[in-house]
Design a protein that fits this description.
By secondary structure, the chain is an alpha/beta fold. Helices cover about 40% and strands about 15% of the residues. Helix 1 crosses helix 5, helix 2 crosses helix 12 and helix 4 runs parallel beside helix 5.
């Protein structure tokens, strides 16, 4: 019997390319047409409250206002599964967490550019308060820990927590059960986990099962960039007016959301509810009726993010440097290589 050992970087590479069991969820067929053009623009989002501006833009017809005919969209359970879709040329533009986008660019060689930001923060640690009284308690070998896959933004938050609180890195990483957000929630409900690292809105959802949020990304990494709007180089070069329209719609949706906070939360809850006809992931999750999400939960979740469209080059470079230091990407690169912010400046 031969045992194949895989390095952390190779594992992340396989996760990005879809070869490590990360499966993109089925989706509604998306066609976003630019006015006067026959080619559909294929757009995807992550299935969480990071994508509230996208849901607002869809519902309030802000893409149409910028000359794009938006009918349906692709939705992926995690940034890693969305990144896998991008490697297959299934997607032209996406709202995705910055870190899996960087993995995609550096490890899989997919030619993409960041056009604007959508939010800061959006990740954290939730615990069973009866078993975990302080972050240091994570060192206890009896504490069962859940989280997402290696190389994800959530994984970076795990590393930041270990560094900040001087925890036992090897012992903790060996105990992290890595799974999709819905599976983490089910494990919490079944009392199989005591502490979980998750993205929003899943992090806030754990409160339904008497967990409490102990740390957020805001506590661990000031100005941490959460998600961004990206597009393929080919789309930007061939149709810069489409890239500009996507950025403008995103900026308009973010502004509307900030001025209509509660309504935005209710709207997003409709898109994130497994009972909604607008939920593309509904048929992929067992016992989906137990994953109910209300506008109140989404509103509370949204408060753990700062929705902002500007992108600071220095912060992108800090993220690249940190991810490279962990060995998650094959090559170090300049932030300028992955940024195209000219449309943001016009917006």
């Amino acid at each position: 019997m031969f045992k194949i050992q895989m390095s952390r970087r190779d594992f992340i590479m396989k996760t990005v390319t879809g070869a490590a069991g990360i499966v993109a969820a089925p989706y509604l067929t998306l066609n976003v047409f630019a006015k006067g053009k026959d080619k559909p623009i294929r757009i995807a989002v992550e299935f969480n409250s990071h994508a509230v501006p996208a849901y607002v833009a869809i519902d309030k017809r802000m893409y149409e206002a910028e000359g794009l005919n938006f009918t349906t969209y692709k939705s992926y359970a995690t940034g890693a599964s969305l990144a896998a879709g991008l490697t297959r040329d299934d997607i032209d533009a996406a709202y995705i967490c910055l870190i899996p986008a960087m993995n995609l660019y550096a490890n899989a060689g997919v030619p993409i550019k960041v056009l604007c930001g959508t939010h800061l923060y959006g990740y954290g640690l939730a615990v069973n308060p009866e078993k975990v009284h302080s972050v240091k308690d994570l060192n206890n070998p009896n504490i069962r820990i859940g989280g997402l896959g290696e190389g994800t933004s959530v994984d970076i938050i795990i590393h930041k927590t270990i560094e900040r609180f001087d925890l036992d890195e090897k012992a903790i990483l060996s105990r992290v059960r890595r799974m999709s957000p819905p599976k983490v929630i089910f494990a919490v409900k079944a009392d199989q986990l005591d502490a979980v690292f998750l993205p929003e809105h899943w992090l806030t959802m754990t409160e339904q099962y008497n967990f409490s949020i102990m740390l957020t990304a805001r506590d661990l990494w000031p100005n941490m960039i959460g998600s961004v709007l990206i597009a393929r180089d080919s789309l930007i070069k061939e149709n810069p007016e489409i890239a500009e329209a996507l950025v403008k719609a995103t900026i308009n949706a973010t502004g509307w959301m900030k001025n209509n906070y509660d309504e935005s939360a209710k709207l997003a809850a409709h898109y994130l509810s497994f009972e909604s006809s607008k939920t593309p992931l509904a048929d992929t999750i067992e016992n989906k009726g137990e994953l109910k999400v209300s506008g109140d939960y989404i509103a509370r979740s949204m408060k753990n993010l700062d929705y902002i469209n500007t992108v600071e080059i220095e912060e992108v470079q800090k993220t690249i440097d940190y991810v490279a230091g962990l060995g998650n990407i094959r090559r170090h690169f300049s932030a300028k290589d992955i940024l195209d912010l000219r449309f943001l400046k016009r917006g």
